[in-house]
Design a protein that fits this description.
With about 60 residues, the protein is α+β, with helices and mostly antiparallel strands. It contains 2 helices and 3 strands; from the N terminus they run ββααβ. It binds zinc ion.
Length: about 60
Amino acid sequence: MAKFSFECKDIGVQCNAKVDAEDKRQLMQKISEHAKSAHNMQNIDKETMKKIEKAIKKA
Ligand SMILES: [Zn+2]
């Protein structure tokens, strides 16, 4: 089964959090929740979003 994962450190954030999910939509939701709670980021801007997209790994 495809699995998507994302690590904050891959976009240059000093954070050891790793988020994973079974689909990309769910992963993006988890990332935005993590961004809010851990990084006080209410909205992910376009530049950051691009970095996130690139850093997402599919296993
Ligand atoms: Zn983080």
